Amino acid sequence: MSETALIFVDVETTGTRATRDRITEIAALKVVNGELVDRWSSLIYPECKVPAQITQLTGISDDMLVDAPRFVHIAESFREWLGDGQLVAHNARFDYSFLRNEFKRAGQDYRASLICTLRLSRRIAPQERQHNLKALLNRYAIAPIRHHRAGDDVDALWSLWQAWQVEHSDEDWQRLLGDERRHRTLPAHLDSAQLEGLPACPGVYLFYGHNRLPLYVGKSINLRSRVLGHFQRDHQDDKEMRLAQQVQHIEWEETAGDLGAQLREAQLVKTLMPIMNRQLRKQRKLTTWHWAEGADHPELLSGNALTQPLGGTLYGLFRNAREAKNALRAIAEEQQLCPRVLGLEKGKGRCFANQVGKCRGACNGQESLAAHTQRAQEALTQLQVNVWPWPGSIAIEEKSAGATASAWHVVRQWCYLGSATSFNNARTLADTPASFDVDSYRILNRFLRYPEQHGLTVTPL
Fold first, then answer.
1. Which of 11, 279, 361, 367 is deepest in the core (most CB within 10 A)?
2. What is the layout of strands, in order, in the sheet containing 287-291?
């Protein structure tokens, strides 16, 4: 009985985004029982222009592809040729992701098991720094005719495979292949040993690239599931593909629960500034509307007002004054409030909005200021910012079912000061200097609204 065919494959593309860029060339070799039995190759019309930098790299130009078939026209015959063969490629998930997406556009759900020769090379020679195909071919004195052409690269890959088989015993070679198959979903540049101790508990994780460049910080109530999940969706998500192509090192920190994980994630993102985190990156100075008691209009203040013992009410957190004014102006138009009384426009007497029937007349006595104030504050309730309800710092005790120990998170005026493993240690953090952070505020406001529902205990310090 013959073994499953190995399909050595290489694709050239118009870019690196498997969901949007397209294949321009495919070459594949079919190997059965160690013998090369068939070859498949074709240029592919990508239905888009080939970028100049790609043409410079591969030598494949638009003119060369004019008469080439579209992938949809060869999809059925190529799928039949592939059969249930196991794909072998250098940085295999890259080629596989492009093939899966091209087949998907052609109405087919293509799936295959993978062997990544880049990851295999890292297992064979962990002492070497370079594992790209060009470096490997130089190391084994294999000379392709042209780099970055699918036919030549796939021939070179088959030659490399044969060289590996010669230098390893059958037993060692099968062990290496077995290890590779067990970790086939992991990124090519990531040592699978790094994930052996990854726990199924709450925490934060950090992805690093070359030279320990911070790529991404994430959090989860199940670290193991979340981290491995990143590498299951790379064929359908460009961000996951970029992560999978670049990640070389992973670190993680366990936390006592979801609150601790979210606070630590926000803190690490602002400290490390990883290139693939955008939502939690450090923001510019925030602004908020403050409506003082007895006043007939709100005043625009810095977001730091949340840390001050102000009377009255705060409404909204905005990235700048223009965003704050636009939000208030939209509410004024919707509720027929007076923009002049609200301080959104200068002047005296009847405002323009009243002249066109969009203001009920607080500016000229048609509506009392008291009634206008009441309507405005009711309309702004949707933006109301919660004032810090404690006189000073608090310790929030957290212990989740999946965590190994409790933690005490110390907070003052919505500012996260740090976490400790005991209440006594938490007390030493009570006076830690801190600045207001809107992401920490939103996290804390959500959890502290009903702390008992999240299994939290709040103790003033």
1. 11
2. 299-302, 287-291, 313-318, 384-385
